[in-house]
Amino acid sequence: MSGRRLHIQEVGPRDGLQVETRFVETADKIALVDLLSQAGLAKIEVTSFVSPKAIPQLRDAEVVMREIQRRPGTLYTALVPNARGAERAIESRTDELNLVMSASVSHNLANLRMTQAQSFAALAETARMAQSAGVAVNVSLSCSFGCPMEGDVPEAAVLDWCSRYVGELGCGGVTLCDTTGMAYPTQVERLAQAFRERHPGTELTLHFHNTRGMGLANVLAGIAAGADRFDASFGGIGGCPYAPGATGNVCTEEVVHALQLMGYDTGVDLAVLLQASRRLPALIGHDIPSQLVKAGRRLDLHALPADFDEIRTRAEARG
Amino acid sequence: MSGRRLHIQEVGPRDGLQVETRFVETADKIALVDLLSQAGLAKIEVTSFVSPKAIPQLRDAEVVMREIQRRPGTLYTALVPNARGAERAIESRTDELNLVMSASVSHNLANLRMTQAQSFAALAETARMAQSAGVAVNVSLSCSFGCPMEGDVPEAAVLDWCSRYVGELGCGGVTLCDTTGMAYPTQVERLAQAFRERHPGTELTLHFHNTRGMGLANVLAGIAAGADRFDASFGGIGGCPYAPGATGNVCTEEVVHALQLMGYDTGVDLAVLLQASRRLPALIGHDIPSQLVKAGRRLDLHALPADFDEIRTRAEARG
């Protein structure tokens, strides 16, 4: 296991910033993405080409995508909800379009206002647009580990949708999303393993939220099943509309810190990543969930007490 | 693995409440412990028989220990720093004395103001007192996974201390404490396995703090190494003097929730445990780290949107 390469994919600029009440200035967004690139992340979800009315926080999608500095080795992706978004993303030189639908019938209707069949048809259209422009396609399947309204989502349904994305849409990657933090380790291992057996040539990403504290445990369960791509958000920003006050995505620096200690090769410069996260509170106007920013890395040591020598001398004098 | 019995040991009434600025009334403490007993926890660290001047939050140790309702199947333990504490604990009918020293030379001096040799001698004295009173003895070894001032603590040193507790003091249990959240999963697996090989007849407890977000992952690593006893604090209360604002012990309800989903038998009634945690904010005067209290259990479902039927009808009408 030791030394195995894992790909850490940053989703904070999209999944995190989209739920903030404060608009982060375009220049600040660009600087953040540039710093995340410098940190060596394998993929960065830069923004979402969604309607500026629906998500005003990301209304500067074009400018951000065009003006970031592209680092070789980092893939720049964006969430694209429809054909109009796909046009904008392609014009802005996005490396990959990330398309989305839900594994849950109810969640797909409630969130996307389409039946799953309608969503799949829309995905097929945007996938064709991307492919004729030579742009990569990834499909993100929300509620792959459970739906906050329906409960369990049958694994067979999840796997069937995945087969259609790979077989009918020809997408290069699929992300199994734990949209509201319902995934648990044994389930993750089972589903990731089943996916990999069926689609060994397709990039599998696991996208966890830490809503119920199982985020990192789920990442490790995914690794045990052979998965090697994980979404995470710097600072742990993001959230869950069904759980006010709950934390969001698994925290990038916490995932990287743990994986590096375990001997995995993440390709990430943790010190640079932490710089990016430390900028967040001033930009979004509140504290961030990241515990690593508060506690420091494992070997960021603390000074001995000022009176340590005195304590020792006294103790030793007692024999 | 499925169905394996794991012992969840509650340390919140001691490790959590001792760092609170607000004094929790004695009657409230007793009611909390009684509710935790009802939840079916295997062991509860009820209090600490420390000097009331040093930790005024636990100045009611005797009354609490005497007036709680004892549930068969729950063991009631208390932290005991010295012979005076051991006397008080034994008089108060404590089932087990939990003795403590640090695996780190500097941390032992800085926190206990004794050399390790002096601490060991004190442990030997209190262990003898407990044993002649027919009371069980557990030794908690702080900084077993690293010291915030020294960094790594050699595993050989940790294991040597453990051998002395078992061989020379005759203690029935040892707790490897991750005092400041420095443990990581591969390290946990290695150390727990080494302990179990050397001391198959001694109860091993793993005590993790979630300071850097690795708590649950460390619990699962411990289980993989055969450990079956884990300390945790309800609500995730507690803290770390070296990381202001950092969370404390792993959160009992989050650990139980995850382990139950994975098919382990914890013996814990999660609904009752959550009742206890939900009482905490009013008693300690601030929000608690528990994410499960915020987000609810995995299958605590949410209602469909009020206009869901309308959304569906409209979507389906589009064909």
TrEMBL record, chains A, B:
<dbReference type="InterPro" id="IPR013785">
    <property type="entry name" value="Aldolase_TIM"/>
</dbReference>
<keyword id="KW-0456">Lyase</keyword>
<dbReference type="Pfam" id="PF00682">
    <property type="entry name" value="HMGL-like"/>
</dbReference>
<feature type="domain" description="Pyruvate carboxyltransferase">
    <location>
        <begin position="6"/>
        <end position="274"/>
    </location>
</feature>
<dbReference type="InterPro" id="IPR000891">
    <property type="entry name" value="PYR_CT"/>
</dbReference>
<protein>
    <submittedName>
        <fullName>Hydroxymethylglutaryl-CoA lyase</fullName>
    </submittedName>
</protein>
<comment type="similarity">
    <text>Belongs to the HMG-CoA lyase family.</text>
</comment>
<dbReference type="GO" id="GO:0016829">
    <property type="term" value="F:lyase activity"/>
</dbReference>
<keyword id="KW-0479">Metal-binding</keyword>
<dbReference type="InterPro" id="IPR043594">
    <property type="entry name" value="HMGL"/>
</dbReference>
